[in-house]
Amino acid sequence: MNKKKIAVFPLDEATIPYIKYNLIDQYDVVAGYTNDKGSCLEKEVILENGRLVIKNINQCKYEEFDIMWLVNSEEVFVLEDDILPVIEQAAYNKKDICMSISLNKNIMLKCQEICDRNNVAFTRITEDDQINFGLTEKLLKVSTPIIFVLGIYEHTSKLDTLLYLHKAAKVAGYRPYSILTKTNDFGLRDCHGFPKFMLNDGVNDKRKVLLFNHFVRKLEIEKKPDLIFVGIPGEIISINKEHFGNFSIMPYLVSNAISCDYAVLKLFNDFYTKEFAEKMRNYCSQKYSIEIDSFVVSETLLDVANADKRPTLQYYYSNEKHKDLDDMYYFGYVDGNGRNLQQHMLDTLQGYGNYNSI
Predict the structure, then answer these.
(1) Which one of 138, 150, 168, 242 is most buried, counting C-beta atoms within 10 A?
(2) pLDDT class for 161, splitting at 50, 70, 90?
């Protein structure tokens, strides 16, 4: 069966992992676009079966794809100025529209009207976070091994690591299910976006802990996975008094709702020592009751020297490993001794005796 071809807009660092690990198995991603606002313009993405260069939407080649897929972005795109014109042009060129972006009623009606006028399909990707059984004042037991992916701060590519391990587990013959750090923009069958109730200010923290626990238990019952991966949004520590993120609330809530059997901590691209790892292990153990099993260095560089001089943090990207990085840290998912992260995870879980080999 021939897969339909899709183009993705706006493609950014947060969305690239979906394409990089070829997890959108029901479609072929043939193009990725952004506009002049996008930080990934002209970025090359290495795929399993080739490469993709992110181009400006003004250079869009409509003859190459069947569906224009619009996704959530961590960058600033305005619906009326940036998204609607893309829908208008794609629909005019007889391309179906698939939308993962949250829309208000007026914008949704505009999108539908554009598609109806051009006689193309308009599809929205949504997920149900509802807990269908009665919520009790009790934490339910979850027996499936759970893997946490946390970040020392935001922009440490947690989703990339989550999907790397998810794909590795699937290739190894296991049935993984992942709770992502963001929305499930492509409706992946064995993934779920981070539940919206955890980000709802109208839900108190106690209820969030109970809801998340019951949510994971519900997934365990319905999906029957061998492994559950949980990507935790936010940070575990503040940068300084000006840049504190969300006060590390999310790791605290998640770790109270469920415990994990393996934990990965993502770091900025820099050099780290064994002593630093030990401090982070003690910190996470004492504050969150999370035992960190592996430290993975991302490609994101944080401009620490100017962090206290700017209202916003400045990030850069480099795929070069720091020459003074200790061998215990993973970079590119391989440590200094040539061992890969996925095998370390599987070996560790099997060593606990609560993980069934296939």
Answers:
(1) 150
(2) very high
